[in-house]
C-alpha cells in the first residue's frame, strides 16, 4: 500500500497486525513510514522509537526519525539522529545523504558536501547524492564542478531531466550561453510541457539575452572574443 501511495490504508493494516503482534518491527517501521507520508510526524516518531527500543542498531529507523524531526522544525535534533543512524551503520547511505541535504538547508555547504561525498562512496551508482552535490556546488558558485556533477548524472541516466536542465543552468553561469541554449532547445523538443514552465522560460530567455549581448560585445571589440 505504501508503494501504491495509499499510506492511510497502510496504517490501518499495520495497526491490525500490531494488535496481535505488538513487537513486529517490520509493521512498526512501515507504519512509521506511512505516518511520515501522511505528515503525522509525531506519531511516526513514536513508531520509530518502538523499533529502536527493540533493535538499537536499526539505522533506517534513526534516519526516518530524523526526517520527521526535520519536518517538525527541530533541525538540530534531526542532525543528531542522522548521526545516530550513521553510528548504527556507517554504510547506510540514506543517512549520509539526508544529513547532507539538511546541512545545505542550514547553510553549511562544506559539511553538506562531505556527507554527500560519503553517500556517493557508499552507493556510487545512485543519482540523488551526485545530483544534490551539483546543487550545493552551484550555490557555492563552483559552476565548473557543478557542471561536471550534472553531466555525469545525465550521462548515466538519460531520463534524469533535472540533471540535464541543471547542465544548461551551469553552462549559462559559465557564460557558455550558446551551449546552454542547445540544452534548453533539446529539452523543449523532447518535452513540450516545459514551454510554459516559468523556470525554463527564465533560464532560456536569460541565455538568449546574455548570449546576444556577448555576441554584440565581441562584434564591436577590436580584439574580438
From TrEMBL:
One Pfam family named in its UniProt record: TPR_11
Keywords, alphabetical: Repeat, TPR repeat
Keyword Protease attached: no
PROSITE patterns documented for this protein: TPR, TPR_REGION
Signal peptide region: none
The TPR repeat ranges on this chain: 25-58, 59-92, 93-126
Matching InterPro entries: TPR-like_helical_dom_sf, TPR_rpt, Ycf3
Entry superkingdom: Archaea
Annotated PANTHER family: TETRATRICOPEPTIDE REPEAT PROTEIN 6, UDP-N-ACETYLGLUCOSAMINE--PEPTIDE N-ACETYLGLUCOSAMINYLTRANSFERASE SPINDLY-RELATED
Protein name: TPR repeat-containing protein
Organism annotation: uncultured marine thaumarchaeote KM3_70_D07
UniProt lineage: Archaea, Nitrososphaerota, environmental samples
Amino acid at each position: 500500500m505504501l508503494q501504491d501511495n495509499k499510506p492511510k490504508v497502510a496504517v490501518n493494516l499495520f495497526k491490525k497486525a500490531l494488535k496481535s503482534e505488538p513487537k513486529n518491527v517490520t509493521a512498526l517501521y512501515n507504519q512509521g513510514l506511512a505516518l511520515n507520508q501522511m505528515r503525522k510526524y509525531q506519531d511516526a516518531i513514536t513508531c520509530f522509537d518502538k523499533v529502536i527500543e527493540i533493535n538499537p542498531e536499526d539505522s533506517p529507523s534513526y534516519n526516518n526519525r530524523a526526517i520527521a524531526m526535520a519536518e517538525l522544525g527541530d533541525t538540530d535534533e534531526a542532525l543528531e539522529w542522522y548521526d545516530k543512524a550513521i553510528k548504527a551503520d556507517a554504510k547506510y547511505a540514506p543517512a549520509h545523504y539526508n544529513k547532507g541535504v539538511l546541512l545545505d538547508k542550514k547553510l553549511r555547504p562544506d559539511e553538506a558536501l562531505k556527507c554527500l561525498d560519503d553517500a556517493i562512496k557508499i552507493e556510487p551508482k545512485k543519482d540523488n547524492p551526485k545530483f544534490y552535490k551539483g546543487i550545493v556546488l552551484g550555490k557555492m558558485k563552483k559552476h565548473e564542478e557543478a557542471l561536471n556533477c550534472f553531466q555525469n548524472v545525465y550521462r548515466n541516466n538519460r531520463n534524469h531531466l533535472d540533471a540535464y536542465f541543471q547542465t544548461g543552468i551551469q553552462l549559462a553561469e559559465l557564460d557558455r550561453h550558446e551551449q546552454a541554449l542547445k540544452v534548453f532547445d533539446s529539452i523543449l523538443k523532447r518535452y513540450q510541457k516545459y514551454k510554459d514552465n516559468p523556470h525554463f522560460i527564465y533560464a532560456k530567455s536569460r541565455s538568449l539575452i546574455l548570449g546576444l549581448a556577448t555576441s554584440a560585445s565581441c562584434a564591436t571589440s577590436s580584439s574580438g572574443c
